[in-house]
Amino acid sequence: MAKRVRILCNGYLNNEISLRFFIKQKAQTLGLKGYCRINENNLLEIEVEGKEISIDEFVRFVQKGTRDEKASNLFSIEMFDHFKGYEKMEIDIV
User: Fold this and answer.
1) How much is the pTM?
2) Which residues is 70 bridged to in the sheet?
3) Does residue 78 carry a pLDDT above 60?
4) In the sheet where 33-38 sits, what is the strand order?
5) Cα 6 from Cα 36, distance rounded (Å)
6) CA end-to-end span of the chain, whole Å?
7) How confident is the model at residue 68 (pLDDT cuts 50, 70, 90)?
8) Is 34 left (phi over 0), alpha (psi -120 to 50) or beta?
9) How many of the other CB atoms lie within 10 Å of CB of 87?
10) Minimal CA–CA distance to 49: which of 91, 22, 80?
11) 8 Å CB contact between 44 and 16
12) Cα–Cα dist 19/92, whole Å
């Protein structure tokens, strides 16, 4: 089964630029497509879609990456059954 997930992270840190690179790399390794960016509310926003098993592994990766960084890190996760049709994984940095 396929899924799409949207993750919002708050309380992010000094190394969030490198984190976005790692997020993109992990998503591509898992065959996921979507985006990772800082949104208009200054939150790290990640949205990816693909196979359910890959989505589950990706969410665990993001949770592990945020857990020890800072006590104030908060994130929300929304799961969807429909795709938006992303063609690649993008990040908002050069």
Assistant:
1) 0.84
2) none
3) yes
4) 74-80, 2-10, 44-51, 33-38, 89-91
5) 10
6) 33
7) low
8) left
9) 7
10) 80
11) yes
12) 12
* Per-residue model confidence as pLDDT tens digits over 22-64: 899 999 999 999 999 988 888 889 999 999 999 999 999 988 8
Banded pLDDT at 20 (limits 50, 70, 90):
confident
Which residue blocks in the chain are alpha helix, DSSP H? 16-29, 52-67
The strand pair at 44-51 and 74-80 is best described as unpaired
Which position has the token pair 């993001």? 62
**Helix 52-67 with 16-29: angle, nearest 10 deg:** 160
Cα torsion 49, 70, 40, 92 to 10°: value is: -60
Q: Please list the residues that pair with 91 across neighbouring strands.
A: 36
Which of 3.30.70.100, 3.40.50.1980, 3.30.70.360, 3.30.230.10 is the CATH number of 2-91? Answer: 3.30.70.100
Q: Give CA–CA dist 38/59, Å, rounded.
A: 18
